[in-house]
Design goal:
Elements: H1 2-11, H2 14-24, H3 30-37, H4 42-52, H5 61-71, H6 81-92, H7 105-109, H8 118-131, H9 143-157, H10 184-204, H11 210-225, H12 229-252, H13 256-273, H14 276-292, H15 296-305, H16 314-330, H17 334-348, H18 364-377, H19 381-392, H20 400-416, H21 420-437, H22 440-452, H23 460-475, H24 488-496
Length: 497
């Protein structure tokens, strides 16, 4: 890193310094070479990334390490094209943060281009053409040409980045959060707001809260970056809770890439704070995301990882155990799945008032409802319907989006059991909640129920449901960041036709 910093000073260019480093060390990956040329450690690189974003993101050094590991051919993760754009701007600022270079994304990718996702490789070519050749100093003022393309890519690929990030300004970007000083009262306000938001999200739907939660999380990131010791740890703990919740909100909207992004940020903050309970919970949530995408094996692995902590409370451990059960059900292992659900119920009997507030929704009713979901997957819809009817009566009235999801599952169970009228009634109730809350998770759960109802297409109720689903499919926007996601509208239309 010192050599890179010295080369940047000698050559007057981060780009030229990075290229010289790679000439001297042919095995040095471009991402690492340009980071060295910028004079940054991995943690400092992550901080520069967040700074470029106006602290809209909460990246940690582990993500920088994962990207560099991927480029070395290891087990890391591929950076998205928007990540490369932001890194190019951040590294181009040099060791002291004052330079105005922009390292082209193509330079950061280097020979790894063939390993990019096809859409990233295509867009990289577009950006390279748009940016044009490098200037005499190695990268001079490509930013003006790169900005329009960068904005378009960033808006569709990176959660939390808006067009204003790349707009020209007479002076440096000023985050509104920067004007808020740290105080115990601010932290207390943010904590209490999050508690209220949990209830509001279930009642009003996710779309109503994403903007405010993102704003509060940006404030936490800004405050935490300026603190050390106990105050920094307290903010990291709170940041982990906010990021986990934001991941859940995005999942509710069907955006699994954004959900995964924020879950990863939550894990970084939880590890930084030494919050084993939240780290376990985030692993469980990532397992939930895997199960929602029907990846049973990954769901089991993540849920088992969430159970490895020594100081987990009974309820937090129960959440991971029931998530493991769901994964086993997706894999067709009924015996193990039912045993794990029973284990989760036993753990809840030991829960006390010392459980974290964010786990309060984990009750016997919650476990049994997910047992019913597993039974549907395992080909036992009649038994699943009996459980859902019984447990839905015990669900708190404020759990509105959850009620919609569970009604959709009940509709599917009834339809698979041959109970057309009951299935249609449950589907209509779920459809009404989906329309009121904007929860795509309800719509996604309804899709297989509607398909199962297709053999009664002549019934007036079924025709109304299909029309309602078609209207929701038409209104649904595809997930903003879904590299592996299918357009939600296409998926729903496929289910209902």
């Amino acid at each position: 890193m010192k050599v890179g910093r010295r080369l940047t000073a000698e050559l007057g260019s981060v780009l030229k310094a990075g290229e010289e480093l790679m000439r001297r060390q042919p095995d040095l990956p471009p991402l690492q070479a340009f980071r060295y040329a910028a004079g940054l450690s991995q943690d400092q690189a992550a901080e520069r990334y967040n700074e470029v974003n106006g602290y809209r993101t909460c990246l940690g050094g582990t993500s920088i390490n994962a990207w560099e590991s991927w480029q070395r051919g290891g087990k890391g993760t591929q950076p998205g094209l928007s990540d490369l754009i932001v890194l190019g701007i951040g590294y181009g600022r040099g060791p002291d943060g004052t330079r105005r270079e922009v390292i082209p994304p193509a330079a950061l990718v280097g020979s790894s281009r063939s390993r990019l996702a096809p859409e990233d490789a295509f867009a990289l070519g577009v950006i390279t053409v748009a940016a044009g050749p490098a200037g005499p100093d190695g990268s001079a003022d490509q930013a003006s040409e790169l900005q329009p393309v960068a904005v378009a890519v960033a808006q569709t690929r990176m959660p939390g980045i808006g067009a204003d990030l790349y707009e020209s300004r007479p002076g440096p970007y000023r985050d509104p959060a920067a004007a808020v000083p740290y105080s115990p009262e601010i932290v207390g306000y943010l904590a209490s707001t999050l508690e209220q938001s949990y209830e509001q999200a279930n009642l009003l739907g996710p779309q109503q809260l994403i903007e405010s939660i993102t704003t509060h999380l940006r404030l936490i990131a800004r405050l935490q970056a300026e603190r050390t010791g106990r105050e920094s740890e307290e903010l990291a703990t709170l940041g982990a809770r906010y990021a986990e919740f934001l991941g859940w909100l995005h999942q509710e909207l069907g955006d699994f890439r954004a959900a995964g992004y924020w879950s990863d940020r939550a894990m970084e903050w939880a590890q930084e704070a030494g919050d084993d309970l939240m780290a376990s919970y985030v692993l469980m949530r990532k397992g939930h995301q895997a199960a929602a995408q029907r990846n049973g094996a990954r769901a089991v692995r993540l849920a088992q990882a969430g159970q490895r902590g020594f100081l987990l409370t009974p309820k937090v451990r129960a959440l991971s155990v029931q998530q493991e059960a769901q994964g086993h059900a997706l894999l067709g292992d009924e015996t193990t799945a039912m045993r794990k659900f029973d284990e989760a119920l036993s753990l809840l009997e030991r829960a006390d008032e010392g459980e974290p507030s964010w786990s309060r929704y984990c009750t016997p009713t919650y476990i049994e409802i997910y047992r019913a979901n597993a039974l549907i997957e395992l080909g036992r819809p009649d038994r699943a319907a009996d459980i859902l009817v019984r447990e839905l009566t015990a669900l708190p009235a404020g759990y509105r989006t959850d009620q919609g999801v569970y009604l959709a599952r009940l509709a599917r169970a009834y339809a698979l059991s041959g109970e057309a009228e009951e299935a249609a009634n449950a589907a209509q109730r779920a459809l009404a909640i989906a329309g009121a809350t904007g929860s795509r998770r309800i719509v996604q759960e309804l899709a297989p129920a509607v398909q199962a109802l297709s053999r009664w297409a002549g019934l007036p109720q079924v025709a109304e449901i299909r029309q309602g689903m078609a209207a929701l499919a038409h209104a649904a926007k595809p997930p903003r960041t879904g590299r592996a996601e299918t357009d939600l509208r296409s998926r729903l239309e496929a289910w209902i036709t």
